[in-house]
Amino acid sequence: MGVRLMVVDDHRLLAEALASALKLRGHRVLAAAAPAAGAAELVITRAPEVCLLGTATPAEPGIFDPVVRIKRERPQVAVLVLGPVPSPRGIAAAFAAGASGYVRHDERIEGVERAIMKARAGEAAVAPQLLQGAFSELLNPAAQPDDEGQRLLQLLTPREVEVLVRVADGEDTRLIAAGMGIAPSTARTHVQRVLMKLGVGSRLEAAALAARTGLLDRAGPVTRAPGAEA
Predict the structure, then answer these.
(1) Which residues contact 150 (CB under 8 A, 6 or more apart)?
(2) Cα–Cα distance, 5 to 20 (Å, whole number)
(3) Spatial distance between the Cα atoms of 29 and 22, rounded to a whole number of angstroms
(4) Rounded distance, CA 48 to CA 172, Å?
(5) Which InterPro entries match (predicted)?
(6) Residues 6+ apart with CB under 8 A from 34
(7) pLDDT tens digits for range 29-73
(8) C-alpha 173: how far from chain center
(9) Spatial separation of the C-alpha atoms in residues 198 and 126, rounded to whole Å
(10) 102 and 76 in contact (C-beta within 8 Å)?
(11) What Rg do the C-alpha atoms of the chain give, in angstroms?
(12) What backbone torsions phi and psi does residue 28 show, to the nearest 5 degrees?
C-alpha cells in the first residue's frame, strides 16, 4: 500500500523529480514545495504520513527548527531529512529535533523508499554507522569538537578577529587602519591573513562565512576611533 508523502526541498527540480519517481512507485505525494522555510506550515496543514525534508546544510544552527515544530504539532508525521554526506553532528541534530531518519541526496530511489517504509513503521531510517555516530554525539556532546564558529575563531588572533568584524561591517582598508590606529599596509596584511586562515578568496566571502557560523556573535563589537565609522 502506498504512503501519503510530502516532499519539501529548496531545489524545486530535485523535489519534483523525487515526487514523480515516488508517484510511479505507487505512493501518494501530496506536495513538492520549495523553499524548506515554509515546510512546517505546509506539513502541519496537510498531515502526511511521511515528510521528506531537504537541506543543504545539516550542521547549521536552527536548520531543523521546522522538524521541531512539525513534531510538536503533528507528532504522528514521520520526518525524513534529505541532505548531503552528513557529519555525526548533523545526524545528531536531525534526531534531536525529532526526525525519523536521514537519507542522502544521492541515494537510489529504492533506498529512499526503504527509508520511507521504515519511518512510517516507527523505525530509525538511517545507515547503522551514521546512527552510531549520531547517538555518540547525543550521549557525549562534550567529547565532540566545538562548533564551526568557535573553531574558526580559534584560528585568528584577537587583532585578526577585530579586522574580520570591521570587514563584515563593510569597512575598507583605510577605515580599518584608522579605526585600529595602524598603517594601511598593516591593515591590508591583516586582511590577507584573515582570508587565508578562513580559506576564502574575498572579503565578501569572509563576512558571509563569519555570519553563517556565528563567529561574529562571539567576537562582539569593536571600539571605533572618532571619524572611523563605516
Answers:
(1) 218
(2) 12
(3) 7
(4) 51
(5) CheY-like_superfamily, Sig_transdc_resp-reg_C-effctor, Sig_transdc_resp-reg_receiver, Tscrpt_reg_LuxR_C
(6) 8, 9, 10, 11, 12, 15
(7) 987 776 766 788 889 999 999 999 988 777 677 888 999 999 999
(8) 32
(9) 32
(10) no
(11) 22
(12) -100, 105
Q: What is the DSSP string of 90-137?
A: HHHHHHHHT-SEEEETT--HHHHHHHHHHHHTT--BS-HHHHHHHHHH
- pLDDT by residue (tens digit) across 167-184? 988 889 999 999 999 999
Q: Which of 50, 106, 111, 104 is nearest to 79 (CA)?
A: 50
Q: Quick one: cell of 144? A: 565532540
C-alpha 173/C-alpha 194 separation (Å) is: 13
Number of Cβ atoms within 10 Å of the Cβ of 170: 11
Amino acid of residue 51: C
Q: Report the distance separating Cα 1 and Cα 28, nearest Å.
A: 10
Distance CA 137, CA 119 (A): 21
Choice among 38-42, 129-133, 155-159, 220-224 with the minimum mean pLDDT: 220-224
| Three-state secondary structure call for residue 178 | helix
146, three cell numbers: 566545538
Residue type, 177: A
